[in-house]
Specification:
Blueprint lengths: L2 E5 L5 E6 L2 H4 L5 H15 L58 H17 L3 E4 L9 H10 L5 E6 L3 H7 L5 E11 L2 E6 L3 H6 L2 E5 H11 L1
Parallel strand pairs: 1-3, 3-7, 4-5, 4-7
Antiparallel strand pairs: 1-2, 5-6
Helix pairs in contact: 2-3, 4-5
């Protein structure tokens, strides 16, 4: 198992943590990582774009001039694509861009992305992030201490003070993972995704979030 240092928000090492190889030490599957990124971007597309073809533009039923003898090129309609106000060739129409991946593929893609961060020494574990108030400067200071400028911050459960404080920083994004247990049922609430993990240079994860990730994906 890989061992990583655990830091506090001042950037000082306070502990060591062993990572589960079943989550943070898998064989990286670049194909699934690529599929997950493409699927997420495709699923964000609304697919509502639309334009009219020559058959849908009003007018143009009459031939503008006779076929021969005018010196002009032959034309059959003023709504042909080459005319101003004419239709569009291969006009875009509303469509569904969504792509699907099964649960095992998604899980392996996330584990591959997490492993890549560990291999590149871009995973920073923090003991806890407790912000007494909503203050962007506190988040900037914390990331400066951790030497993580462009970062994805993952917490166990939604940390409202952190989320709102980080909203004004264009190079920072927050995510959360939480495992809720009620009797025999387990509910997982997670906003972690492959695209964000790969987009941001550094992955900053709280210690309890690491435990939640290992519980869900191990």
């Amino acid at each position: 198992m890989a061992k990583v240092a655990v830091y506090n928000i001042e950037g000082k090492e306070v502990d060591k943590l062993e990572l589960n190889d079943a989550v943070f030490g898998v064989e990286i599957n670049e194909h699934l990582v690529h599929m997950a990124v493409v699927a997420q971007l495709a699923n964000k597309r609304q697919g509502t774009q639309s334009a009219k073809t020559r058959s849908e533009v009003s007018g143009g039923g009459r031939k503008p001039w006779r076929q021969k003898g005018t010196g002009h090129a032959r034309q059959g309609s003023t709504r042909s694509p080459q005319w101003t106000g004419g239709g569009v060739v291969f006009a875009p129409k509303p469509r569904d861009y969504s792509m699907k991946m099964n649960k095992r593929e998604k899980a392996l893609a996330i584990k591959s992305a997490l492993t890549a961060k560990v291999n590149d020494n871009k995973l920073v574990v923090v003991d806890k992030i407790d912000l007494a108030e909503i203050k962007t400067k506190s988040v900037v200071s914390m990331l400066g201490n951790l030497k993580a400028e462009k970062a994805l911050i993952v917490t166990n459960g939604i940390n409202n003070n952190l989320v709102i404080s980080a909203n004004n920083i264009p190079t920072v994004r927050t995510s959360s993972i939480e495992v809720l247990k009620n009797e025999d049922k387990r509910e997982v609430r997670s906003t972690i995704n492959v695209y964000d993990i790969m987009k941001y240079d550094t992955l900053v994860v709280t210690k309890d979030a690491v435990a939640a990730i290992e519980e869900v994906y191990a």
